[in-house]
Amino acid sequence: MFRVGIGHDTHRTVEGRPLILGGIDIPAEFGLDGHSDADVLLHAVTDAILGAAGLGDIGEWFPDTSAEFAGADSGELLRRVISEVSGQGWSVVNLDSIIFAERPKLSAHKQAMTDNLAKLLGVDSAMVNVKAKTGERVGPIGRGESIDAQVVVLLSKEE
Fold it and tell me: Which of 45, 62, 81, 116 is the most buried (most CB within 10 A)?
């Protein structure tokens, strides 16, 4: 049996925080605003996996109103979700993602993000794809006010 999930996340850019995408520290003059470490890519991945497994969304699992998740490592949150879906017999087949950011340029960091995602998901790096797009200077992304991520994941389960 196969299930497809889609995830999306958006965070505002702010000064004074590190920029973490896909679990990788990205050199930048700004970071992302959020209750946890604000890793927009890992949040979208987590949401996609939860959706594919029919387990709700990241806000239900890790509410931004809970002190427990203040400053949380998004990689650890993803590990918790992977553990849950694996316990239900699901495994990740592949993942495709897009990060929407006007700046910084991400091409030099895509392989590190891919490798880290593969490690977190327990799959070969060939099963993970990370793309980066700009906002073409249009809207909040194009003005550098936010960074978005979209993810599609395929899960499989032996029947």
Answer: 45
Q: Which pLDDT belongs to residue 99?
A: 98
Q: Identify whether the C-beta of residue 121 lies closer than 8 Å to the C-beta of residue 86.
A: no
Q: Domains of the chain (ranges plus CATH)? A: 2-157 (3.30.1330.50)
Q: Tell me which residue of 133, 105, 130 sits closest to 117, measured CA to CA.
A: 130
> Rounded to an integer, what distance in angstroms lies between the CA atom of residue 119 and that of residue 122?
5
Cα–Cα distance between 120 and 48 in angstroms, integer? 14
Question: Which pair of tokens denotes residue 20?
Answer: 């973490």
Contact (CB, 8 A) for 58 and 72: no
**What are the distances in angstroms from CA 18 to CA 31, 32, 66?**
5, 7, 22
Overall pTM surpassing 0.70 (yes/no): yes
